[in-house]
Every structure is written in structure tokens, then in C-alpha cells.
From TrEMBL:
This is TonB C-terminal domain-containing protein. Keywords: Signal. Residues 1-20 form the signal peptide.
Amino acid sequence: MKKSLFLVALVGFLATQVYADPAKSRKLKAPKASLEKQLASYISTPDALKQAQQAGVVVIQFRVNAENEVCQLSVFSHNEQINNSLTRQLTGKKLAGYGSDTGELHTVRLRFQPE
């Protein structure tokens, strides 16, 4: 009797878990295209790429703090002038919809075309 009562309670518990809807406490992320558009509004082509009249791709990584500001920015290019220019242009800029306390690491490729 105890075993069958326990089994019925266990099956009932498992059945309620199947239909449970967990609360979503995480914020929905803005689409990646929105992130790229926001970054593009802050960036101008670095002088090193303008002078060379060549296209270029530069990878950046950063975190967004609770105040929606870009922080801990790393620029990955072989040209130190490009690295400094992009770091100066982006550090502290606000990105709407990305602020968090978790400090998620974002990686973005920036493509520059000659004018």
C-alpha cells in the first residue's frame, strides 16, 4: 500500500513538472544587427585605413556594464594606431538594451570599406 501510494505521488509530481512554465528572469537580448548599428553610429574609419585606401576587418571584444556603457574593450588588429583609435572612439559609449550585471562578453567584427 505504501509503495503504490508513493508511486502515485511520484507520478503526480512528475506530471506537474512536465507542464510547469519556468519564470523567465533574463532580459531578452536585442538583435545582433541592432548592436552593430549602435556601434557603427559611434565609429569613424581610423586614419590608418583611410590613408591606405584599403578595406579592413577588425575584431573587437567588450563587456557592457550595468550603466549600458562599453567597458573592458579589446581591439584585435596588427596596427596599434587602429587599436588606439577604436578604443578611444568606443570606450564609455552607451549601448541601449545590453547593460547587465553579468558582464557578458560580446565579440563583433567591424568591416571598413575605402571611401
